[in-house]
Amino acid sequence: MVKIILASKSKVRKNILDQNNIPVQVQPSNVDEDVVKESLLKEKSSPENISKSLAELKANKISQKENDFLVLGADSVIDLNGELISKPKDRQEAMNILQKLNGKKHYLISSVCISKNGSMVWNYTDKAILTMKTMTKKDLESYLSKISDEALYAYNVYQIEGEGKNLFSNIEGDKNTIMGLPIKEIKEYLNNYK
User: Fold this and answer.
1) Catalytic residue among 18, 68, 75, 79
2) DSSP labels for 2-44?
3) Is the dihedral of CA 5, 174, 147, 104 positive or negative?
4) What whole-number distance in Å separates Cα of residue 16 and Cα of residue 142?
């Protein structure tokens, strides 16, 4: 059995791997995402490119130290008409993000990268299209009051398998992609890995 490290402290990603019988060790990369995003935004990188770059950076960082393992890095971002929207740092920022997404269509982009010996050996990026209902400020406040801090900061501003599904009039795409880990493609890669 191939040994795998998940370069993330995301409980959601770990749960998806567990549910799919993919045993992993968890070793967060602790990459300073804000610094990387800022630098890439200055270079006019797209949200998709930022997601891919962060997934690769996380995987490579741990992979350099752990030679006998495949290291899985992942990153998810929201793309609203080309604008990168990151996870909120507090509830006020979460409210601002919800107001920005209110009544609009956006993409949720999830990228995964597998590295070995410090270099990427495989990567995949998937997009889901989500259309948020038009909601009043009171509706949004009510939604936020039902979400725990942990869920709010772990899932961007919506927890799609919980309360968050009520925010949307339309969702196109894979649920696991929205939760941050396109597992079908990861399993295909691992099944073919020799």
Assistant:
1) 75
2) --EEE----HHHHHHHHHTT---EE------HHHHHHHHHHTT
3) positive
4) 28
Which of the four pLDDT bands, split at 50, 70 and 90, describes residue 135? very high
- CA 90, distance to chain mean position in Å, is 18
Coil, strand or helix: which one is 62?
A: helix
Global pTM reads: 0.92
| Structural domain boundaries in the chain | 4-192
**Residue 183, helix vs strand vs coil:** helix
* Residue 102, C-beta contacts closer than 8 angstroms, at least 6 positions apart: 132, 134, 135, 140
Per the listing, tokens 């495949």 go with 70
pLDDT digits (tens, 9 = 90+) for 84-101: 998 888 889 999 999 999
Return the structure tokens found at 114. Answer: 């597998």
Active site residue 32: no
| DSSP-assigned letter for residue 164 | G
For residue 29, give the nearest of 47, 51, 55 by alpha carbon.
Answer: 55
Q: Tell me which CATH code domain 4-192 carries.
A: 3.90.950.10
